[in-house]
Design a protein that fits this description.
With about 260 residues, the chain is α/β, with parallel strands linked by helices. It has one domain: NAD(P)-binding Rossmann-like Domain (Rossmann fold). The chain contains 10 helices and 7 strands. The protein has a 7-stranded parallel beta sheet with strand order 3-2-1-4-5-6-7, with helices on both faces. Helix 5 links the parallel strand 4 and strand 5. The two termini are about 25 Å apart.
């Protein structure tokens, strides 16, 4: 590579000033980190969660740092709730530039003992919710001929995980959905990508016994869990204009677990 070409790639700064980003599941963990990071990059962040009370810590963090944000309560598996949120945001800001589908739940159990309700709740939240928000936001993005959609999946959707047949199926579904929508929307300047976290330090992993944590870390080449900020940094780049030639991709942020 010529010296000039190399120097042109150094010091790229993610700049999202003037953009409006909608993040589902923004109340805690990875979703909160993503919302805070997008705001730090200059975006106006719309956080979505089941309750406004749960969102307050995220909104306060963004505002204390000088960012612009507001929150909406919604059930991501309800087409009525989803359309209401999208309509209100578009009415206020006249645009939604970035969508991060992060909302997700787990209802773990061995497949042979899994209740129908445990299967359906996970599929509805993790997969149907991603579909509903993507469909709702995609209309305005197509009109604008610009958009960034980032769907949060999991390495469980790539390699499976015992006791998580419902979760792994939903996250694998997100991957297939993303690849299809990326093809459908590419000609309109809209990119659609997947971030697949590995084991990340959240409320969920903090509850694991120390023995299990140690065993898991031994399977990860970098020998540690990821942080929510590890995921947020990548999402912020994918949300930027700089990622215009990256679409339909699945990027595992897992410390080498699936290498």
């Amino acid at each position: 590579m010529a010296d000039g070409a190399n120097s042109a790639t150094v010091g790229v700064r993610v700049e999202l000033t003037g953009r409006v980003a909608l993040v589902t599941g923004a109340s805690r963990g990875i979703g909160r980190a993503i919302a805070v990071k997008l705001a730090a990059c200059g975006a106006t962040v719309v956080g979505v969660a089941r309750s406004l009370d749960g969102l307050q810590a995220t909104l306060e963090s963004i505002r204390e740092a000088g960012g612009s944000t507001e929150g909406y309560a919604a059930n991501v598996a309800s087409s009525i709730d989803v359309q209401r949120v999208v309509d209100e945001v578009e009415a206020k800001y006249q645009r939604i530039d970035v969508l991060v589908n992060n909302a997700g739940v787990t209802r773990d159990g061995l497949m042979l003992r899994m209740e129908d309700s445990a299967w359906q709740e996970v599929i509805d939240t993790n997969l149907k919710g991603t579909f509903l928000f993507t469909r709702a936001v995609g209309v305005s993005m197509m009109r604008a001929r610009y958009g960034r959609i980032i769907n949060i999946s999991s390495v469980a959707g790539l390699i499976g995980n015992p006791g998580q047949a419902n979760y792994a199926a939903s996250k694998a579904g997100v991957i297939g959905f993303t690849k299809t929508v990326a093809r459908e929307l590419a000609s309109r300047g809209i990119t659609v990508n997947v971030v697949a976290p590995g084991f990340v330090t959240t409320d969920m992993t903090e509850g694991l016994p120390d023995k299990i944590k140690t065993e898991v870390k031994e399977r990860i080449p970098v020998r540690r869990f990821g942080t929510p900020e590890d995921i947020a940094d990548l999402v912020c780049y994918l949300a930027s204009p700089s990622a215009s030639y990256l679409t339909g991709q699945v990027i595992a942020v897992d410390g080498g677990l699936t290498a």
